[in-house]
Amino acid sequence: MLKIGPWEFDFPVTQAALSGYSDAPMRLIARRFGAPYALHEVMLDKSIAESAKARQKLLGALLPEDHPVGGQLMGAEPGHFALAATFLVERGYDVVDINFGCPVKKVLGRQRGGFLMSDPATAIEIMRAVRRAVPPQVPVTLKLRRGIDDSPESAAKFFRIFDAAWELGLAAVTVHPRTVQQRYMGVSDWKFLARVKRYAGDKTVIGSGDLFSADAVKRMLEQTGVDGVSLARGCIGNPWIFRDARAILSGQPLPDPPSVPEQGRVIREHLALLVAAHGERLAARVLRKFGIKYAELHAQPRDVRAAFIGALKYEETLDVLGRWYDPGCDWPPGRRKTEPGGLIAAGACQ
């Protein structure tokens, strides 16, 4: 069980907020493969607080099947955070998530995201403002990295923010055990996650980092003791990871990698959801970035990746699907992602 405030899930694997990716179509696909909870891509608090047009564009319309859903906020001002959080709740978001983890240089330069790991006083004021702004039954959660760097001072600041989260009534904390300076380089420090979970006791701690396979999900849960895990880059173009994780966590055999025709069916479903949300023209452009990731599981990944990159129009996207995912072709088995950039089982259509 994974518990986030009043929400209880029988499966401890969730979809993270993914900038530029975790829109409603991606979340719905993830849910259909077993994700019990998903977050909207990170949103800038100031934009939501100050602009009705931005609110309409960023918050969108939540579908009945897209619940429970979290809205993740990033910014620098407690007042903007609080106002934006109220709009999230009014729009129907079930959880408000605060991002103190983004390591992107532009974000840090504006004193947002991971920068707050160096400024506990402001971080705490933001958490306090958000918790006060939303109704008590709406959970507020937090996303952290393990610090700005590996210094003892940075670790002390992490635990100051971490302790304050519980004191202020936050429901869960997601920890990515890389430093802000590391960005996405190097190995994620799962030993730090284990230390944090031991320190937190029965409070809900969710782990993140280097989760590109169902086996990695199982190992993180076993090795660190965290209450749940948050899938980020590992589930882009690979919703089957939720199905696979459900299987092995329940003691069942790992399912076979998705066949090429099965991949095509899911990509067509994803495209249809994008068309419903954005119209054919924009849907084709959005699918390109997903298609590049879906292609990694294809028997001919380089050719398929190039085909998706070249598909700028809806009709061209349909041509890619018709050519490279033809269910009538005798495709070899699909491929399975095992680690960043690592794949197994290759082949070519005969």
Describe the model.
The protein is globular. With 350 residues, the chain is of the alpha/beta class. The protein is built from 14 helices and twelve strands. Helix 6 runs parallel beside helix 7 (152-167) and helix 12 (280-294) runs parallel beside helix 14. The protein folds into two domains: 2-249, Aldolase class I (TIM Barrel); 260-344, Non-ribosomal Peptide Synthetase Peptidyl Carrier Protein, Chain A. The chain has helices spanning 24-32, 45-50, 52-59, 78-91, 105-109, 120-133, 152-167, 190-200, 214-224, 240-249, 260-278, 280-294, 301-310, 314-324; strands spanning 2-4, 7-9, 13-15, 38-44, 69-74, 95-100, 140-145, 172-176, 205-207, 228-231, 336-339, 342-344.
